[in-house]
């Protein structure tokens, strides 16, 4: 935003926060209805939360950054473009892959097929792009959805930079040329561009365009050095991702070894006490093993190499078994722990010794045997790998860039069920990060970066606040329980300045962004989704429950209306209307104060206006003819031809790939699933 608009935003931010502090201070000190504390306290807490969100939004907008045009893209960068897919229609994936292939900056294009579909592999070869899928090392091991798919490809390609596109995100030919110049700064880890959806009508009934986020909010985060990576339409530096993966592996391995050594020492101490009573002859083995564990703990504290600690511990355990009376090397079977010169150890004791020492070694060994990859560059601890990865890159000292220019055109959900499923996944992953890696506790982040991440994560707690804002007026209108003690005129005197200042701040900061009111509506109306996401994220972190990664469908899932997907909002709407009728009847009967009733009815009117967005979304049946597909006809035709070849049975994979047979004179190498990794030939490029 320009300097004059930024000045206006800063002024409004100060005014809004000041009015908010006055209002909340007044609410806490003199208006809480303590006789009905069970609703009065949640209400004032919800209002305090809303003020906190206003403060975080004001801080975000305070430093909104309008970047100068990026420098020209430097020559000679090697770039891999990843098109990620799982189960999307083959023709849709090919449209994106062909458009990516035809970008003007030299690069390699790869389809990352997590669905392992032979027909897509054949089609990829027909249009001249690479094909990557998981290898046998992933069988029976955690796959980590999209994060695992990208991590797998990172170890099978070699470009300096990696561009990531979802299967439906079609890039313009100039995409790479417009953003690669930022990477002349060696500290830039990634550049994010907006996600724009071409199949959304101007009315945006599902609230999917998110122009406020992909605009002022991202510019504000960028101004504080915390622009988000959003999973697609971004270019990342491979070096930064690999450095992050190595750092996280080292940190996790050290934590695991520390805990394993501590547990091993405790277990061996217990075993030694038991052997003193049961089998004293076996005590030397346990004593020497315990001494070895203590030496390993000392090495760990000194910062020795973890692999060397494990190796020396294994040697010490073997030596202890060899030197013990009646013992032979640890490689022997439990029954072989005997000596011709000493009484043999009972077989059960020998087996117990070997099992204990093997168990300690297995826990201490830092090599990951339960995962396909030792190093995971993209974060795999949450289903929103993009936010978590960006946060930890920032914590390492890398910087990011938000480039505010639409260069990629995607598909948005066209039914309310799919849209809600997508939002639930985003919110659940964000709350996973909130509970597991709260930005306030992540070392390396600046205070501003902590607050930028916190502001996004805590926004999903609004579901609980909305529930209170809906329940409070119903309780007064039906039961006469009013959660605050204040004269209505005095209430408006305190509340209206805060409310008006917030709305002005929102409108001025978001000027030029469409759907501002719709965004406010959806933020409130989707309260069941936000509550479910918060509970799911907390359960995943604290109870270890699995959270499935649901791929957003690229086709409409149902015909007709979708009221069943917004049933809670429908029920609440009916309850508000019935409560209003009851409240009016109670007022006319003299059972309720008229000023308080009118105040509450106004409150209900605002709630209904916000909830109406969900009801309107349920009636949405698609954009119809109001939108135009931006994909060039030549790209769509080529994708259709490739699919047609596969359907016609022309699906034999070539033993060698001849670039001269590729349409549009493209030079690229196809990598079948049986090819060795990493590729041994030169990095593939396209003109």
From TrEMBL:
CDD domains linked to this entry: CESA_CelA_like
Subcellular location, principal: membrane
Membrane topology: Multi-pass membrane protein
Protein location: Endomembrane system
Keywords (A to Z) from UniProt: Glycosyltransferase, Membrane, Transferase, Transmembrane, Transmembrane helix
Signal sequence region: none
TM regions (residue ranges): 7-26, 38-59, 460-482, 527-547, 567-589, 596-615
Gene3D superfamilies membership: Spore Coat Polysaccharide Biosynthesis Protein SpsA, Chain A
Official protein name in the record: Glycosyltransferase
Species this protein is from: Oerskovia rustica
């Amino acid at each position: 935003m320009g300097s004059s608009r930024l000045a206006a935003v800063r002024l409004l931010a100060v005014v809004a926060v000041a009015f908010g502090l006055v209002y909340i201070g007044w609410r806490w000190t003199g208006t809480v209805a303590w006789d009905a504390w069970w609703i009065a306290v949640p209400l004032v807490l919800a209002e305090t939360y809303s003020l906190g969100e206003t403060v975080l939004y004001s801080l975000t907008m305070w430093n909104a950054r309008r970047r100068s045009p990026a420098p020209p893209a430097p020559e000679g960068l090697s770039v891999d473009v990843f098109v990620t897919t799982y189960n999307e229609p083959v023709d849709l994936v090919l449209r994106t892959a062909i458009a990516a292939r035809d970008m003007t900056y030299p690069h390699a294009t790869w389809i990352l097929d997590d669905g392992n579909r032979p027909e897509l592999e054949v089609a990829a070869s027909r249009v001249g792009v690479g094909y990557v899928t998981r290898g046998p090392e992933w069988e029976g091991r955690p796959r980590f959805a999209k994060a695992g798919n990208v991590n797998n490809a990172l170890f099978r390609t070699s470009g300096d930079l990696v561009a990531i596109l979802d299967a439906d995100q079609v890039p313009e030919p100039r995409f790479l040329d417009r953003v690669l110049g930022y990477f002349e700064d060696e500290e830039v880890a990634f550049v994010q561009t907006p996600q724009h959806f071409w199949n959304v009508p101007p009315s945006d009934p599902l609230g999917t365009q998110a122009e406020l986020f992909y605009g002022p909010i991202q510019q504000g985060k960028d101004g504080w050095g915390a622009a988000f990576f959003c999973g697609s339409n971004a270019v990342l530096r491979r070096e930064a991702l690999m450095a992050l993966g190595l750092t996280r592996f080292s940190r996790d391995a050290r934590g695991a070894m520390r805990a394993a050594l501590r547990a091993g020492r405790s277990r061996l101490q217990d075993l030694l006490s038991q052997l003193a009573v049961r089998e004293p002859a076996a005590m030397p083995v346990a004593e020497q093993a315990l001494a070895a564990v203590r030496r390993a703990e000392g090495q760990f504290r000194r910062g020795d190499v973890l692999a060397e600690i494990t190796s020396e511990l294994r040697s010490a355990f073997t030596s202890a078994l060899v030197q013990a009376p009646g013992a032979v090397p640890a490689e022997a079977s439990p029954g072989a722990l005997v000596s011709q010169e000493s009484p043999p150890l009972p077989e059960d004791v020998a087996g117990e010794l070997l099992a204990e020492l093997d168990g300690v070694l297995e826990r201490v060994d830092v090599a990951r045997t339960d995962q396909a990859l030792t190093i995971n560059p993209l974060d795999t601890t949450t289903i929103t790998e993009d936010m978590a990865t960006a946060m930890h890159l920032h914590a390492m000292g890398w910087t990011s860039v938000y480039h505010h220019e639409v260069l990629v055109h995607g598909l948005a959900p066209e039914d309310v069920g799919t849209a809600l499923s997508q939002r639930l996944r985003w919110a659940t992953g964000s709350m996973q990060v909130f509970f597991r890696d709260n930005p306030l506790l992540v070392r390396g982040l600046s205070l501003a970066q902590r607050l930028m991440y916190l502001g996004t994560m805590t926004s999903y707690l609004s579901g609980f606040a909305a529930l209170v804002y809906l329940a409070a007026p119903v309780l007064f209108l039906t039961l006469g329980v009013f959660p605050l003690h204040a004269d209505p005129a005095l209430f408006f005197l305190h509340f209206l300045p805060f409310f008006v200042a917030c709305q002005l701040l929102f409108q001025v900061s978001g000027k030029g962004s469409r759907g501002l009111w719709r965004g406010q509506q959806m933020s409130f109306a989707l309260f069941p989704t936000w509550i479910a996401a918060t509970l799911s994220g907390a359960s995943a972190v604290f109870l270890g429950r699995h959270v499935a990664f649901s791929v957003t469908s690229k086709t409409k899932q149902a015909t007709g209306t979708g009221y069943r997907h917004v049933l809670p909002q429908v029920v609440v709407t009916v309850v508000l209307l019935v409560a209003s009728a009851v409240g009016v009847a109670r007022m006319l009967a003299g059972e309720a104060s008229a000023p308080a009733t009118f105040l509450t009815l106004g409150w209900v009117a605002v709630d209904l206006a916000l909830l109406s967005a969900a009801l309107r979304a349920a009636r949405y049946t698609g954009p119809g003819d109001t939108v135009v597909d931006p994909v060039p006809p030549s790209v769509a035709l080529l994708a259709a031809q490739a699919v047609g070849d596969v359907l016609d049975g022309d699906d034999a994979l070539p033993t060698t790939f001849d670039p001269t047979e590729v349409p549009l004179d493209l030079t690229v190498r196809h990598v079948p699933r049986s090819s060795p990794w990493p590729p041994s030939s030169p990095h593939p490029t396209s003109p």
